[in-house]
Amino acid sequence: MAFTLYPDTRLALARDALAGLSVGDALGSQYFVPGRQPADLADGRLPPPPWQWTDDTEMACSVLAALAEAGRIDRDALALSFAERCEPYRGYGPGAVRILRLIRTGTPWPVAAAAAFDGQGSCGNGAAMRVGPLGAYFADSTSRAAAQARASAEVTHAHPEGVAGAVAVAVAAALAARARLDGYRPDPARLLAGVAAALDPATEVHRGVRRVAGLLGRQLAEVVDAVGNGSRVTAQDTVAFTCWVAATHLDDYPAAIRACVEAGGDVDTTAAIVGAVVAAYAGVGTPGGVPDDWLAAREPLPDWVG
Ligand SMILES: [Mg+2]
Fold it and tell me: Which residues form the signal peptide (predicted)?
């Protein structure tokens, strides 16, 4: 059913998703610090603040700023924003740094993105990790969320799996935000079915999402065994896992992030993706939402995100 979503509402949903994304990213990256134990978080002990956010948050801020400015993705402008805002010490992968350097020095993004990884294009997580707020922004239309996610992905990720990862996460966040507006929690199986329906059936990301739909209610370790936990830093071994965690813990942000930390792998990115989707539904400072003290522990977002 079509309905009107005012720009302020769109942005509020996207900002909550960005809060969830950035807190997940910043807290998740703490578990790469030597001596930090996932068991501490499970026991309710948080790492000392401030929690510094990484590339996931920096790129997501560019996506949100683009939507706040234009209401849609202008690929040329977004590519330039990613390139100009990139602080390499934030944990960008070497492939991403290379693409962004090419764009910054004048190579058109279609050329830079296509040249990555010996001409295959990137199937990394970069497009998926930054797109949750975009999905929440398009809570009124999963097809618009998917199309805009594709546009936001293409500027750096030319590989079909990299694009599919972004579409999956955006549609999950759109469905989560829509459910929040409608005031009901979607059944996890329906949420995953909605995500799968938006994906190219030829992709491994699609197969992974279908697979985790059959693993709802199972143990976390079993899901990690079946589809991965992001440790290979590809969309194929990250996105299905994050969809399962988000669908399972959609009304409990702390539980969702604890699951990412417990699973290990590329924790800042899995927690960023899951955090965006869950916060699109559960909100910030609400019961089950992003806890206020977690948000306060996160390094402030850059001024330019507004
Ligand atoms: Mg990161």
Answer: none
